[in-house]
């Protein structure tokens, strides 16, 4: 059994997808597809058998002209044993394979590469071992990867169809999953748990890098402050540092004021004074959010003191300037 399965696994690991299923790009995808198809065709078979017999019996034993009530037969032990034992064996087999598969998916290999995942309304953040955070999932090919996942707010669910991977992401606890991608490329990554208004925006990519390229990508991406124009780096920081959760860029107030048109704008502060927004005010707002609180808002912004570098603040300021033009 083990041998046959591993043979099938080896020869069918990859597929480019067909009418029923998306491409197959992880080592365990074939087992999942096999189990899925088995249950699907088994259900189709029994559906046809049961409905077919029902229709046939309806016609064959219909009420006829002159026919009166018939004595009903008692029961048929042989028939009852057959229709009890066969389905029982089938569901035991499904449970057995399903449980083994579940255990295989739940226990990551020891040497798996760990990536931390945060789900939040409404995006994914992937945090790599060196501290770099990205909005897409990047992984090396042919290497087990473990995702340690949690949520900042409501229940989300990480779903990568090509890897046959789906797992809920729940606030206040960690869920882990793992996979081993079998081919370089870009695959869709969704949220599969309806989590609110912009649920459908929680879509990004799982990028599988060819051998040796992942490390290069990570080093390059981690250096984005040095490599990108400051306003672009600032936009990235706005997204990955959580500012976007409280500050919109479309003019609508959220937990915090919008960033649209903020630079150079006159802001009313709690206590009745006003201030014209410049670089120093923004810097202060990030490092000492409670020094000057905007009128009409709660002082709930966390301080970024000690958690953000000067170059990062500069980049954010450059980005905010672009929102005023
Ligand atoms: Cu979601």
Describe, in short, the structure shown.
Helices cover 38% and strands 19% of the residues. The chain is of the alpha+beta class and 325 residues long. A five-stranded mixed sheet has the order 3-2-1-5-8, with no helix packed on it. A five-stranded mixed sheet has the order 4-10-9-6-7. It has a two-stranded antiparallel ribbon with strand order 11-12.
Describe the structure.
The structure is a single chain. The model has no long low-confidence stretch (mean pLDDT 90). With 325 residues, this protein is α+β, with helices and mostly antiparallel strands. A 5-stranded mixed sheet has the order 3-2-1-5-8, with no helix packed on it. Strands 4-10-9-6-7 form a 5-stranded mixed sheet. It is 38% helix and 19% strand. The protein has 9 helices and 12 strands. It is elongated, with a radius of gyration of 29 Å. It has 3 domains: 2-61 and 74-106, Orthogonal Bundle (Helix Hairpins), CATH 1.10.287; 113-222, Cupredoxins -  blue copper proteins (Immunoglobulin-like), CATH 2.60.40.420; 228-322, Cytochrome Bc1 Complex, Chain D, domain 2. A hairpin with a 2-residue loop joins strand 1 (113-120) and strand 2. Residues 119, 156, 191, 193, 195, 199, 202 line the site of copper (II) ion (CU).
| Contiguous helical run count | 9
Name the CATH architecture of the largest domain.
Sandwich
Tell me the CATH topology of the largest domain: Immunoglobulin-like
Order of helices and strands: HHHEEEEEEEEEEHHHHEEHH
Q: Strands of the largest sheet, in order across it?
A: 3-2-1-5-8
The ligands found in this model are: copper (II) ion
Strand content: 15-25%
Number of strands: 12
The total number of structural domains is 3
- Average pLDDT for all residues: 90
- Per the principal axes of the C-alpha atoms, what is the gross shape? elongated
Low-confidence stretches: none
Structural class of the secondary elements? alpha+beta
In helices, the fraction of residues equals 25-40%
Assign the CATH superfamily of the largest domain. Cupredoxins -  blue copper proteins
| Distance between the ends | 67 Å
Q: What is the C-alpha radius of gyration, as a whole number of Å?
A: 29 Å
CATH class of the largest domain: Mainly Beta
Characterize the main sheet: 5 strands, mixed
């Amino acid at each position: 059994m083990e041998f046959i399965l591993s043979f099938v696994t080896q020869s069918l690991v990859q597929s480019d997808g067909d009418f029923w299923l998306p491409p197959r790009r992880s080592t365990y995808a074939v087992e999942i597809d096999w189990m899925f198809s088995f249950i699907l065709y088994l259900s189709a078979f029994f559906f046809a058998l049961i409905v077919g017999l029902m229709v046939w019996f309806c016609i064959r034993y219909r009420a006829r002209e002159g026919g009166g009530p018939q004595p009903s037969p008692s029961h048929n032990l042989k028939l009852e044993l057959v229709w009890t034992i066969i389905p029982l064996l089938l569901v035991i087999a499904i449970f057995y394979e399903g449980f083994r598969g579940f255990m295989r998916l739940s226990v990551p290999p020891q040497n798996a590469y760990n990536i931390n995942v945060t789900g939040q309304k409404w995006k994914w953040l992937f945090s790599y071992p060196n501290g770099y955070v990205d909005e897409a999932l990047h992984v090396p090919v042919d290497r087990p990867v473990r995702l340690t996942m949690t949520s900042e707010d409501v229940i989300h669910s990480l779903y990568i169809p090509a890897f046959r991977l789906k797992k809920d992401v729940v606030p206040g606890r960690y869920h882990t999953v793992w996979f081993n991608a079998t081919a370089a490329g870009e695959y869709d990554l969704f949220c599969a748990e309806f989590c609110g208004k912009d649920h459908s925006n929680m879509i990004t990519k799982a990028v599988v890098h060819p051998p040796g390229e992942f490390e290069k990508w990570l080093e390059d991406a981690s250096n984005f402050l040095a490599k990108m124009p400051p306003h672009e780096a600032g936009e990235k920081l706005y997204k990955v540092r959580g500012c976007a959760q409280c500050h919109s860029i479309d003019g609508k107030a959220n937990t915090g004021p919008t960033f649209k048109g903020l630079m150079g704008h006159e802001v009313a502060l709690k206590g009745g004074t006003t201030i014209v927004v410049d670089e120093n005010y923004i810097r202060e707002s990030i490092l000492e959010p409670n020094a000057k609180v905007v009128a009409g808002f709660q002082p709930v912004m966390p301080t970024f003191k000690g958690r953000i570098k000067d170059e990062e603040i500069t980049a954010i300021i450059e980005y905010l300037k672009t929102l005023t033009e």
